[in-house]
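Sequence in, structure out. Go.
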Amino acid sequence: MAARGAPLADLQSIVISPAPLSSVFFWSSDNFQSRIAFDGMTHRKTTGRVTLSEQVATQLASMITAGRWQPGEKLPGELELCRILGIGRSTLREALRSLAFVGLVQTSHGEGTFVSGGAEHLLERLLAKGLLRTEKAIADVCEARIVLETELAALCAERIREDEIKVLRGLIARMGQCLDRNTTEFNELDLQFHLEIASFSKNPVLEKVMNPIRDLVSEWIVKSQELPGLRVNAHRQHQAILEALANRKPDRARKAMREHLRTFLRAVALLEKVSALGAVKL
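Output:
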């Protein structure tokens, strides 16, 4: 990979636009109430639902799509980007993780973060087949799953037995063995994990409500695993959900499930932004 990047002086003119983004773009479980817009190095708060890391991800995606950095080029170092953007390292890292999820960048430990190629066509490939062929369809399924599965997770945390916890641990362990395999096994285990939580909630009515959307959930999982960073992230989120269940923490289980389900939606929204930017460039 080339180690060159855009001159840092050019980045001084970055302005993170305060213009409203999609209402579903990068939902956050913790920071709905404010977003911060930058005008040069001056900070001001505006009202909105988009977090600062989301704005940073969008701005960096815009710059990459516009050709500020070419595929294979290295982004400026973490400390330099933080200084120029006037943000903290945790905010920058969250933004870079978002870009990595959709294949815009790739981070190599000890070397830095490099621009990847081809992400502008990924959304088109994701929506080319199946029932979920628009961002609206994906958002609708996300909304339905959040309403249903977050409460199933909370009930499960209250009612799950030790032997059932072992079942979920076994599924997560098997998923961990599939992270680097190009097979459908991870997707099948992922679906089973969610169906088992529904079963372990001990509410047969709610469990049956999952059946009509089972095919949509399966397609959701398959599509999400086509994104470069989502499989490892899903595995990590499954572990967080299980930890909440095992510790009998309903609120934590509800929150962990909600964050897990929103991840794919956020990635699709960012991909849509990237796709739109690519179309403008053309």
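Check: The longest strand covers residues 34-39. Residues 1-48 have pLDDT under 50 and may be disordered.
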